[in-house]
Amino acid sequence: MPATPPPSPHNPSERHPKEEDPDKLGPDTLGPDTLGAEDLTYLAATEKLLLAVDFDGTLAEFSDSPTDVRAVPGALEALQELAGLPGVTVLIISGRQLRELSAVTGLPVLDSPGPDDIRLVGSHGAEDSLSGSAAAANEAVGSAAVGTADGSVNPTPSARAEVLQKLGEHAEQIAATDRGMWVEYKPYSVGLHTRQAASPEAAQQANQRLAEFAATCSTPAVPVQVTWGRDILELSVATATKGSYVAGLRTQLPEHVVFFLGDDVTDETVLASLTQPRPDVGVHVGGRLADTTAATRSLGSPFNVRDTLQQLAELRR
Ligand SMILES: [Mg+2]
């Protein structure tokens, strides 16, 4: 994948004719409409609902220490209640590795989740509790090749491991130049964290250098995906994206309406795949991508997400 910043999923002016009204130009008119009562009434009335939610920035606020991040109070309880209601399938899909997602949510990685369980999906869709990847989460790149929800198979472990090692070494060299940067290792990716970098410019330069190096490591056998996330540049050798995961799951649940909420660039792969604003409902959280998101609805913060989930549970009870 080319080492370039994330593209805009669409031209926002095409979707927001109201912005053409010069009297209404301004921050309040940018981006999707806020998710409203009418949307909740619609979602509450759907017979089958696939509720897929990102974790960091969507259910949880950010922290300088990723392992200390927790969902805002009541959010997981609302999800759990929704999972227990008839016709609702719930998953939390995150860029975190599965094991870590389990730790920060306090939810188990289940070998065979039932209809009332919250399913956990890690590594942007490369690890879930259905594809036997509890093992993958524990064994990292040394494990066998793992199938993804869309039926594709990731490259052989040894080739992947070799590329990941090169990416990790280079990321470490870059991180060593700035005390605020650090490298995270996941089963299928390496991330350079820059939240506490010396300056935004230093972070940008470091990311650019690493992205350029990643482009030189990418081959047809082991393509390297570069994702410019929030305070992290992620280099992945997995072929899965959140979008491909949800698309794969949909083929197994064809009658389900999808309600998806996410805050970051990687969530756009899901949002771009939905049919919005009906039958599916896609929500961009936090407003960071307000002028480029493919979502047609928005919520301001994880607290608004929590409130929304609680209201939906109440309406579906
Ligand atoms: Mg997020």
TrEMBL record:
List the catalysed reactions. alpha,alpha-trehalose 6-phosphate + H2O = alpha,alpha-trehalose + phosphate
Pathway field: Glycan biosynthesis; trehalose biosynthesis
The answer to keyword Phosphoprotein applying to this record is no
Q: Which cofactor does it need?
A: Mg(2+)
Pfam families reported for this sequence: Trehalose_PPase (PF02358)
- One GO term (biological process): trehalose biosynthetic process
Q: Where does this protein have compositionally biased stretches of type Pro residues?
A: 1-10
* InterPro entries in alphabetical order: HAD-like_sf, HAD_sf, OTSB-like, Trehalose_PPase
Q: What residue spans carry the Basic and acidic residues bias annotation?
A: 12-26
User: Origin, by domain of life?
Assistant: Bacteria
Positions of the UniProt region annotated as Disordered: 1-34
Which GO molecular function entries does the Swiss-Prot or TrEMBL record give?
metal ion binding; trehalose-phosphatase activity
Query: Which keywords does this Swiss-Prot/TrEMBL entry list?
Result: Hydrolase, Magnesium, Metal-binding
Q: Does the keyword Metal-binding apply?
A: yes
The EC number(s) given in the record are: 3.1.3.12
Q: Which family does it belong to?
A: Belongs to the trehalose phosphatase family.
Q: Which NCBIfam families match?
A: T6PP
Free-text function comment from the UniProt entry: Removes the phosphate from trehalose 6-phosphate to produce free trehalose.
The name this protein goes by in its record: Trehalose 6-phosphate phosphatase
Q: Which organism is it from?
A: Corynebacterium urealyticum (strain ATCC 43042 / DSM 7109)
Q: What is the lineage of its organism?
A: Bacteria, Bacillati, Actinomycetota, Actinomycetes, Mycobacteriales
